[in-house]
Every structure is written in C-alpha cells, then in structure tokens.
Amino acid sequence: VLLGLIDLCLENTTASGAPPDSLTTPQLAEKVIEIYWPQATVFAAGRSARVLKQNAGRPDSQARIVSDIQRFRDRHIGDPTVPLAQARRKASKAFQRLVRSVEWKLIEMPLPRLQIIGGQEDPFLYTIGWDQSIQRSEVRGYEKGEASFDNRILLRPNVGEYLVQLNGLLRPLIHRQWAAMVAQLNRLEEARLERFLFGAERVPTQAVRPGLREIQNDRCFYCDGRLPDAAGRRAEVDHFVPWARHPNNAIENLVVSHERCNGYKRDFLAAAQHVAAWRRRLEPGSAIALQLVQLAEDKAWERGQDRSLSVARAIYLHLPDGYKLWVRGRDFDDLDREAVTDALA
After folding, report:
1. Are 255 and 240 in contact (CB under 8 A)?
2. 118 CA to centre of own chain
3. How would DSSP label each residue in 54-122?
4. So what's the pLDDT on residue 114?
5. Is residue 230 very low, low, confident or very high in pLDDT (cuts 50, 70, 90)?
6. CA–CA distance, 312 with 329 (Å, rounded to integer)
7. What does each C-alpha distance from 55 to 64, 99, 178, 197 come to in angstroms?
8. Other residues' Cβ atoms within 10 Å of the Cβ of residue 79
9. Burial of 234 (0-12, 13-18, 19+ CB in 10 A)
C-alpha cells in the first residue's frame, strides 16, 4: 500500500510538480495489481518451481490478491509472460472485476489497519471514511455502480510532498524488506528474490528496440552517435527516468542508446539537455510522438505520456540545489533548475 501511494503521488503530480491531495481506492487497487502482477508468476528455485507464498497463515495458503491475479490470468490470459497492459486490453471486463475484488480487499484490510500503532489509530498518512468494522454489504451497491461510497484516500497535509521527496529512499527499503519477508515465508535465499519481485528485466524490451532505433534514426539518444552492432556500442533500451526511481515501461519512457552510454548512465538522472530532448519527442502532434503511438499500437505496448511526464516532474522538480545529473561518460553537471523546469513545462 505504501509503495502504491508513492507511485500514485509520482504519477499524478500537476504541471508544477505538486503531488495530489487525495487518491481513490480504485486507483490504488490498479496500482497494487501492477505491483503484484510479475510476482504472481512461477519462481524457479532449485528443483522446485512455484508461485511464491506471500501469506503468513497456513502452509498451503496464499495472499488473496496474489490468488486473484493468478485466477484472472489462468482464466482469461493463459500465458504468464503477457504484460499487464496487454492483459488489461485483452480481457477488459474481467480485469475490472479483478480491480473490484482487490479494491474490496484494500478497503477491508490494510487501509483501515495500516495506521494503528500500539492498539491506537494514528492517521499520520491519510484519512478515510470507514474503519475496521466495514462490511462487504456496505459497498455492494457501490461496486455495482448503484450507490455511492466515499472511496477517497485523503492525504494528510504535506504527505504527498514527503512521499515524492523520499521516493528514492523509501522504495529500495520497501523492496528489501518485502524480499526478506518473501524469502522467510518460502525458506529461500534473498539474493535472487529482489530482482524477481521488482526487476526491470521482467518485461523484455526487445520487441520495441528495432522500432525505437528507427524512430531515432539509428542514433544513440544520449550521444547522438550511430548505433552499430559492435561490442560496447550495441543498441540497448534505456528507461529515461530510471526504473529504480519509478517502474515505468510506457513507450514514452523508453529510449535507445549505446550499450556504453547506458552503462555509464545506469540509475542516474540525466542532465537538463537530455531532459529537453526527451520532452521534445513527447510534444503532442510531433512526428516522433506519433511514431511512438504507432509503435505502441503495433507491438501492443504500454502507453502513458501524461504519467511519464508527471513522474519526471515529480522527481526532477523536487531535487535539491546542487544535485548532480549525468551528462555523458563519467561527467556530471549540477542541476540547472531553470532549464529543467522549462523543459518539463
């Protein structure tokens, strides 16, 4: 839930980088499904291969949300490697039923219980219009679209701002603790688990690499050099806003670069000139923006221009003065706040 709240604050900032004051339970349900989607697939460990247990109950029990995702995928998708964006389009009605099921589980369990400390409620993150005594019958009409229910998650003052600012610290801590919990429940070593649960490689990008190369005239996004298939200069797909900062596989967040440039950039944030170049390619109606849309359609790939820009604004516009941004190779520049702000306007 905390990871979902962080992601939604990043994805729903205003043009000035201000995070939202409130979120809704359907938004959070979709985000929780997105987080769990790759985790509800088989993990191979030694001679066994299974969906990892994420419930501390009976030895044969599983977390309800993981079970719901497995059931949806088995009944409507089949192939466990299909990305969520494709599954959502392929079985849209069934996916909405999945969202409703997960939404109820969030309403019932974690949301009214997350802020109970020492037996007392301390709403330091958000306030909601229900408590632990809520019954399914109270939201049945709402689930069918026949009645109202206050589904808002009202963030406390400045909480959205803090979640955005602390994203770079909280995300790896949450990932590490989550992997440790799953390792303990399944009696596994932690080393491979974190990459399995949260790694970018879970959605292969080879399908869109040729199209991105063509859109970029076979040139590296960062150094503008040609992209020959030579050692150290092979074309690689890079997440412009790094996956470690926010998991976003939307076509708008993907660029092609030299293997070497990508290796130098790693999880660093790119400098102002790169931000400006990235922003220009997303200009509505531009040739590249239209080509990206077409590529996403051709490959049934995820799209998210507004979300990608919102995340970039949330991260870049909250950086402290003097923050180092990657330029090329081992070169870094201090944050040029005015240039970055203008680029993301």
Report:
1. yes
2. 32
3. --SSSTT---HHHHHHHHHHHHHT--TTS-HHHHHHHTHHHHHHHHHHHHHHHHHTHHHHTTEETTEE-
4. 93
5. low
6. 22
7. 8, 20, 12, 15
8. 8
9. middle
Residues 6+ apart with CB under 8 A from 290: none
> Which residues, other chains included, contact 219 with Cβ-Cβ below 8 Å and sequence gap of 6+?
225, 226, 227
pLDDT at 283 over 70: yes
Place of tokens 């859109």: 215
Calculate the alpha carbon distances from 56 to 45, 68, 114, 295 in Å.
Answer: 20, 17, 17, 43
pLDDT, tens digit (0-9, with 9 covering 90-100), for 19-32: 999 999 999 999 99
Question: Contact 70/50 with Cβ under 8 angstroms?
Answer: no
CA dist list (Å): 99 to 12, 17, 30, 281, 290 = 19, 28, 6, 33, 31
Question: In sequence order, what DSSP letters do the residues of 2-21 get, joined into one string?
Answer: HHHHHHHHHHT--TT-PPPS
CA–CA distance, 63 with 85 (Å, rounded to integer): 23
CA distance 37 to 179: 15
Neighbours of 103 (CB within 10 A): 24
Place 44 in a pLDDT band, splitting at 50, 70 and 90.
confident
Burial class (CB in 10 A: 0-12, 13-18, 19+), 345: exposed
Which residues are 226's β-sheet partners? 219
The token pair at 260 is 């070497």
Residue in this structure with the two tokens 């939201």, named with its chain if needed: 139
Question: What is the arithmetic mean of pLDDT over 156-170?
Answer: 95
Model pTM score: 0.85
Kindly provide the residue ranges of all beta strands, DSSP E only, lying in the chain, ordered along the sequence.
Answer: 22-24, 42-45, 48-51, 116-117, 120-121, 126-127, 152-155, 235-239, 254-258, 324-328, 331-334
